[in-house]
């Protein structure tokens, strides 16, 4: 297993945002966490990035206990997140934003060309707009940039928080197909989504979160075919 999360509890003050969550991510796989607003998906990803303190439980990455490791130490280990709401640097160009993603790499000068090529290969639009200020790009383009920036650190595990949020249906299809490409290139993906239908379609394994707890798990296909899951998360269609 690449990532093992065991009995994880995270609070915001007295609010228990996640309670006793256990799940794992196999190397090379695509795993999705789905659930309604407030279920704890973002908190889980932030905790894996080292941005939230763990109250109880453990996180292991490649067998190493990283439960209390600082955020900046996790990127060199191979964990990189594309955050919800994108959070690109609006006053910087596309290329400058991408360079920020490689900031923690000691060997970045050597690998920069190859890393930029990989990102531009996945997102030709970013290549076309390489000198444009990120803040002037469309929502879809900013989303692509956020994912591209996360890839610049060559992560083993890519954490994606709601990559389809706020995008038009055609762009959503495009983003999901790029996520499949990223995984096919060998990057393990942990995807948080409210678009459960799409996420289940592409995930090897899915975990359903409800009010901070894992309530179901199965393969993407199993859950997509399950009547109660369909009724609750797929609009019953
Ligand atoms: P969304 O899709 O809306 O982001 P989510 O599943 O990602 O939902 P979280 O954002 O992880 O859910 O929130 C889990 C719980 O923690 C919610 O009850 C939320 O209100 C609470 N919470 C999140 N951030 C904070 C915060 N900064 N302070 C206090 N409570 C918070």
TrEMBL record:
<keyword id="KW-0067">ATP-binding</keyword>
<keyword id="KW-0029">Amino-acid transport</keyword>
<dbReference type="InterPro" id="IPR052156">
    <property type="entry name" value="BCAA_Transport_ATP-bd_LivF"/>
</dbReference>
<dbReference type="InterPro" id="IPR003439">
    <property type="entry name" value="ABC_transporter-like_ATP-bd"/>
</dbReference>
<dbReference type="InterPro" id="IPR027417">
    <property type="entry name" value="P-loop_NTPase"/>
</dbReference>
<dbReference type="GO" id="GO:0005524">
    <property type="term" value="F:ATP binding"/>
</dbReference>
<dbReference type="GO" id="GO:0016887">
    <property type="term" value="F:ATP hydrolysis activity"/>
</dbReference>
<dbReference type="InterPro" id="IPR017871">
    <property type="entry name" value="ABC_transporter-like_CS"/>
</dbReference>
<comment type="similarity">
    <text>Belongs to the ABC transporter superfamily.</text>
</comment>
<dbReference type="GO" id="GO:0015658">
    <property type="term" value="F:branched-chain amino acid transmembrane transporter activity"/>
</dbReference>
<dbReference type="InterPro" id="IPR030660">
    <property type="entry name" value="ABC_branched_ATPase_LivF/BraG"/>
</dbReference>
<protein>
    <submittedName>
        <fullName>Amino acid/amide ABC transporter ATP-binding protein 2, HAAT family</fullName>
    </submittedName>
</protein>
<dbReference type="Pfam" id="PF00005">
    <property type="entry name" value="ABC_tran"/>
</dbReference>
<keyword id="KW-0547">Nucleotide-binding</keyword>
<dbReference type="GO" id="GO:0015807">
    <property type="term" value="P:L-amino acid transport"/>
</dbReference>
<keyword id="KW-0813">Transport</keyword>
<dbReference type="InterPro" id="IPR003593">
    <property type="entry name" value="AAA+_ATPase"/>
</dbReference>
<feature type="domain" description="ABC transporter">
    <location>
        <begin position="3"/>
        <end position="236"/>
    </location>
</feature>
């Amino acid at each position: 297993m690449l990532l093992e999360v065991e009995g994880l509890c995270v609070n915001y003050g007295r609010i228990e945002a996640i309670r006793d969550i256990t799940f794992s991510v196999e190397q090379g796989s695509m795993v999705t966490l789905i659930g309604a607003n407030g279920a704890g998906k973002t908190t889980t990803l932030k905790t894996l990035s080292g941005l939230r303190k763990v109250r109880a439980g453990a996180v292991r990455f490649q067998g190493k206990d990283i439960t209390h490791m600082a955020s900046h130490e996790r990127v060199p280990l191979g964990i990189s997140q594309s955050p919800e709401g994108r959070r690109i640097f609006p006053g910087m160009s596309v290329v400058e934003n991408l360079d920020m993603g490689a900031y923690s790499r000691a060997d970045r000068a050597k690998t920069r060309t190859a890393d930029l090529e990989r990102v531009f290969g996945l997102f030709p639009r970013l290549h076309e707009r390489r000198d444009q200020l990120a803040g002037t790009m469309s929502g879809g383009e900013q989303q692509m940039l956020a994912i591209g920036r996360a890839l610049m650190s060559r992560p083993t595990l890519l954490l994606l928080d709601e990559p389809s949020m706020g995008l038009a249906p055609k762009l959503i299809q495009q983003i999901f197909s790029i996520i499949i490409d990223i995984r096919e290139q060998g990057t393990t993906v942990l995807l948080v989504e409210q678009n459960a239908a799409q996420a289940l379609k592409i995930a090897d394994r899915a975990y359903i979160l409800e009010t901070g707890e894992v309530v179901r798990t199965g393969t993407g296909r199993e859950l997509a075919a399950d009547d109660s899951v369909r009724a609750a998360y797929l609009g019953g269609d």
